[in-house]
Amino acid sequence: MNSRKSPRKKNLSAMRMLGVQLGTARRAAGLTQRALGERLMLDEETIASIEQGRRPLKPDLAELLDELLQTKGLLSAGVENLPEIDQFPMWAELYVEHEREAIALSLYANQALPGLLQTEAYARAVLRERVPAYDEDEIETRTAARVGRRDVLHRKVPPTVSFVIWEPVLHLEIGGSEVHHEQLRHLREYAELPGLSVQFLPMNSPSHAGLDGPFVLLETPDHQHLAYIEGQRGSQWVSDPGEVSILARKYAMLRAQALNPQESKRLLDRLLGEQ
Length: 275
Known about the structure:
Layout: H1 14-28, H2 33-40, H3 44-51, H4 59-69, H5 74-80, H6 92-101, E1 104-109, H7 120-128, H8 136-148, E2 160-166, H9 168-171, H10 177-190, E3 196-201, E4 215-219, E5 225-230, E6 235-238, H11 241-257, H12 261-273
Parallel strand pairs: 1-2, 2-3
Antiparallel strand pairs: 1-4, 4-5, 5-6
Helix pairs in contact: 2-3, 4-5, 7-8, 10-12
């Protein structure tokens, strides 16, 4: 038998590596995730999320864990030396999980309408624009998943959701004129949902705080503030409070530069009346 160790994985994020260290220390102390959570007055899911790298470990909690697990400052040092931006492949399941349980979402879009606002036909048309192309089975699977995400807006207690969308997105007839018209009608209906705000940044605006591209701000039920940035060839979860603050300030400026919600509804009414 070959006794050599397997090569180290090189694709773990810093957050996930810190989570692995926490899980190792917890098991060495003979504690389950539930037992550790009970000692810290946290639920089991919170401990699991930190160990899996899905939730950042905060400095004050790291100190408590170092004392409880007798890790001699290891976890606190790990938190202190985390990179400002944690970057790793963003699997759809991970983002959808955060989105599903979020209590607040703020989304800026400048390329296509956000998935939460897309009709089935529009979502399918957007997915058909991918290069290299998806096969039809993949398109249908992804379309169904995207449309299903809208359920978060219809929860018994829905999240507070704010969208800022650059106006040119409204004029792109992705999928053709019928799909476009149906999408605008759908958008106008969703603009009336409770706790949901839709604003458009007009094309003639002299200022634009979102020139660096789209992003999402997210608040979890335990008030973790995260951001998500997706590009053509990669994505980032941003957990560092300073970096999240920068994006939050960008979003605040975008909202100030955009038409207010009532003006945005009137813009949709005009576009619908022209068709």
